[in-house]
Amino acid sequence: EEGWTLEEDLPEEGTVSEPKQRLPMVAVIGRPNVGKSMIVNRLSESYRGGSIVHDLVGTTRDRTYRRAFWADKEFFVVDTGGLIFEDDPNQVFLKEIRQQALIALEEAAAVIFVTDGQQGVNPLDEQIAVFLRKECKVPVYLAVNKCESDNGEFMAAEFWTLGMGQPFAVSGIHGTGTGDLMDEVCFNLPKVVDPVEDTAINVSIIGKPNVGKSTLLNRLVQSDRAIVSNIPGTTRDSVDEMVENDGKLYRLIDTAGIRRKRGIEYGTEFFMINRAFNAIRRSDVSLLLVDGTEDMSDQDGKIAERVVDEGRGCVIICNKWDAIEDKDNSSWKKMNDYVRESLPQLTWAPIVVASALTGQRTANVFKEVDNAVEQHRRRVSTAVLNEVLYEAVSWHKPPATKAGRQGKIYYCTQVSVRPPTIAMFVNDPSLFRENYRRYMEGQFRKALGFAGTPIRVVWRGKS
Length: 463
Ligand code: GDP
Ligand code: GDP
Fold this sequence. Notes:
By secondary structure, this protein is of the alpha/beta class. 34% of the residues lie in helices and 19% in strands. The longest helix has 17 residues. It is globular and about 70 Å long. The structure holds guanosine-5'-diphosphate (2 copies). Keywords: GTP-binding, Nucleotide-binding, Repeat, Ribosome biogenesis.
């Protein structure tokens, strides 16, 4: 039907041309709350274009970096992450920001340093400026955000004191000024016509402290697999571990945070959660570790929820199986049931009961990751989806509202992968309540599996 053009570009199989060069990275750096993610969103939105796809922003994210273009330049925007820190920014914070920023800087072709014009120059901005002047070898562009008001230019001028050159008054919310800024940023960016796509599978190892993340990481890295340390362009994250298994390349994410944990006492739950969130954002699949010898807590739930929100694949590793005493025939099932019950967000994630310490069943992890990745990238034909839809509707019609209005579903189609996202085209989305939406999602899952990946169902009206 006309008017339902979907601009999500799912390439036809076999049409991908030989890649040549990496796209340049533009790193967005700044203290929390200055509007970095707002700016990143604005830049990467321009990549998608089109109104329907615009609605899907947030559901169709690129896995690690956001792709963007401006004028004739294509690039990735890298958000250095919403760092959360405590009231008195001490060494701990500085180390965190350094670590995050260094990763981004190492591979960046340009840096956008974002500050908050409404708050004025902040001591943390000054620290970041000092840091950038010292560590950064590529051009830095100073964006003074939240300058949508009439005296925006005036507010921005104050930031000359940072010594980072001309401040650009911008507003991530309104979009004012971002054009001039991007013209400037892009002027010096290399133009890449035929970009290399990074093929490594990004795997984050996440979970509460002490569940065995570093032990598992070491296990995965040390087994008789080649550790790939100098593939060009893959070593940029000194904190990530590249591992090859069965001919495929995996990037194990956030190992630095894990490794350095012993050296630096971060302490707060904030840091734990924040680090996990950053790792999740950068991954295709998360290995969510839980400790089989302990009760689960809402920290586990919080992390699980984030995996779902970010639309990442997931494999649950129930660790420390070796330490469970008096195991009998029912122990394994009991453990599985307990984990399922405790993580209702992840009913679709496979559970591997394992021991990172002894290596028991850790060999299964790569296989489970591969399955999850395959499902995460899976495309189902419109014909098959509509068969499922037809069945589902004939079992259970959309209920009419009290006012007698009847929801009608015309058809559905998959609009994106990572995670699989199905758009339902209906007369009026507001006629479909939460429980019917859940029913429909459940039917897709029941019919199509999608084990290891969340799926999304978005409801689109005619206007
Ligand atoms: P980040 O932590 O640097 O990624 O900051 P966010 O992008 O999450 O934004 C932090 C807050 O600033 C949010 O409440 C935004 O709504 C607000 N914000 C972001 N950009 C602008 C802007 O251009 N103008 C105004 N007034 N507020 C903004
Ligand atoms: P992290 O904080 O999640 O990185 O956890 P670590 O990998 O540092 O492990 C925390 C503690 O649990 C260490 O004492 C490990 O030796 C222990 N541990 C990790 N995995 C296992 C396991 O499979 N079985 C047992 N018994 N102990 C484990």
